[in-house]
Task: inverse folding
DNA sequence: AATAAAAATGTAAACGTTTACATTTTTATT
DNA sequence: AATAAAAATGTAAACGTTTACATTTTTATT
């Protein structure tokens, strides 16, 4: 037998009352509560979450969809989510999209079959078709986006002000006396990278410095090629004295490329990344960057979702302000 | 209404038959199968996994317990697990222990309440009491350990040969002409770190070189202090020419400390880490290390678990062989 | 065409909870 | 002490599937 039924039989009390005890209903006398709890301990009772979920319609599971789990940024976010969500007695199911729309849709579908109470997700770089997502928004399943959102109205989201982050990074280079700055930009299909580019351009124009935007798309597949492109750029624009890279990993590659070219950082060129990855403090020189408070972003998203689970609130988008992290790669040795 | 019942009504077929269609039972004629599938599509039917789980006792969920998700090694493992497990139609629930036994037990309990089909876990550094784990092993829930195992007999595990990894790393230093080597060891309560230490000692003794073992426990809380200890060690043993650190993060810190002390790597001292973290190729000089094939470890663990789900197999422990990754930090400039 | 075997389908109970509603017991009020 | 109100408990159905067993239909065999 096992389960609530056995406890009911043991204590001579009804199923309903036993259930009430485990759901902390106020409507049960201390005496019977104690009796039930004792019996539960005796048989090492473990409630069956699935059964409760089926009957109540609440699974106490939250689905999390990220592009990749083994990525410093997203794993920090998952850490933040896990913290608040598990404190509230929820479990998290994690799916990866590997930046593929097809996998994303499959993951969403799978989460719905599991009757998750809510969904936290960051859309893949590839995602253009929002019909599946729109269907979820239209349904009752609460969903909160973090970092990357679909371009749809009336959604819950926790985002980073990427424009501002890039603006701050660029201003920092200018503060450090850079007068001719280069931006290595990310995939223009991804909106957060486009915003960073815009922030860069805006700050450069505001302060009337020379600027340039470029891509180095082959850094992983063919670093040799990028080394040559970079060499060309620097040859064409020999007075470049500051570089803002769209991400920290790219920045570290740049650091190594510059080293290979015998260009000293920060003496000849100052360099700043974006993301404040875990390794950025460890390089030589250490890398200045823009912190995006990934763990906090996870926490806030989770809180927004939990709030939505209690009562359907108006869709809200929270925008976090990135912070400048000054390290050696942008140090002004003359100041 | 919704669900299987509605489809049954629409198609004029019984509940059982509809169920058979979705479970790919061979015992259903192509004609009715088609009819049912059509109806399912028409009402956008989504099976309720919870209900199926309750009735069948199979949740199609696998629990994963790791010390921290935002850790390069464990997130790689999760990536590996997710790949094989989701290909087989399972979902994963992830819990963090933050290296606390208490949280570990809570996570295990929570997974049992969810009726997970199996568990994949790496025990926390703190865990000494295995009663909860033993209870699970005794029950029917299959469990596989990865990387860190409890010292219990007859368990399923996928492990790294840490002794061998350390042995290889040490031999590599000796190959590169180091004659006086230092090991910066990890927390002696953690068995994998102890094995690394033993491997180091064994290789050093085998090749009859001078060696030394030390801890630098404050590197995160108080790097100044460790800088001084390191200075002391090197002063006392001025002919140290090779260092094997128990982990890559520690190794990178050492790299920076050595740089501060104006000791050139690899010219004066050669340095090798352990783990081949994602950032180890990015440092200057790049860090030699021991690769532990984290993603593969995840895949193998998941496969072992899936195998156990099909039919209870004899407990097996698979031991992976680590690989040497040669980079600049151990380059012999004379060779 | 009759019969046996195989394939397809159906019936109904069960998985372990929650919960609306009903009933009983206790407490407060006069 | 009688009555009303509040607190505690109980009854029974339901959540949406799966599955053992029974029955019907189809196919193969003579």
Result:
């Amino acid at each position: 037998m096992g389960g609530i039924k056995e406890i009911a039989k043991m204590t001579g009390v009804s199923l309903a009352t036993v259930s009430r005890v485990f759901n902390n209903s106020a409507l049960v006398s201390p005496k019977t509560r104690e009796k039930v709890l004792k019996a539960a301990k005796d048989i090492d009772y473990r409630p069956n979450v699935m059964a409760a979920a089926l009957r109540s319609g609440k699974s106490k599971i939250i689905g999390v969809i990220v592009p990749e789990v083994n990525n410093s940024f997203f794993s920090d976010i998952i850490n933040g989510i896990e913290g608040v969500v598990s404190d509230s007695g929820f479990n998290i199911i994690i799916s990866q999209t590997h930046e593929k729309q097809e996998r994303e849709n499959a993951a969403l579908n799978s989460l719905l079959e599991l009757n998750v109470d809510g969904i936290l997700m960051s859309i893949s770089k590839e995602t253009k078709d929002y019909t599946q997502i729109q269907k979820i928004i239209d349904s009752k399943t609460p969903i909160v986006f973090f970092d990357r959102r679909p371009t749809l109205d009336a959604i819950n989201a926790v985002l980073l002000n990427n424009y501002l982050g890039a603006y701050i990074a660029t201003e920092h280079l200018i503060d450090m006396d850079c007068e001719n700055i280069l931006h290595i930009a990310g995939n223009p299909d991804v909106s957060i990278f486009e915003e960073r580019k815009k922030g860069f351009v805006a700050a450069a124009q505001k302060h009337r410095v020379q600027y340039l935007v470029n891509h180095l798309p082959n850094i992983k597949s063919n670093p040799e090629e990028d080394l040559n492109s970079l060499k060309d750029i620097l040859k064409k624009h020999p007075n470049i004295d500051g570089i803002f890279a769209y991400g920290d990993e790219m920045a570290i590659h740049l650091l190594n490329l510059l080293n290979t070219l015998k260009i000293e950082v920060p003496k000849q060129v100052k360099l700043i990344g974006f993301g404040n990855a875990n390794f950025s403090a460890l390089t030589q020189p250490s890398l200045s960057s823009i912190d995006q408070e990934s763990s906090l972003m996870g926490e806030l998203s989770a809180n927004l979702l939990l709030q939505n689970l209690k009562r359907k609130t108006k869709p809200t988008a929270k925008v976090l302000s990135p912070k400048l992290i000054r390290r050696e790669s942008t140090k002004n040795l003359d100041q």
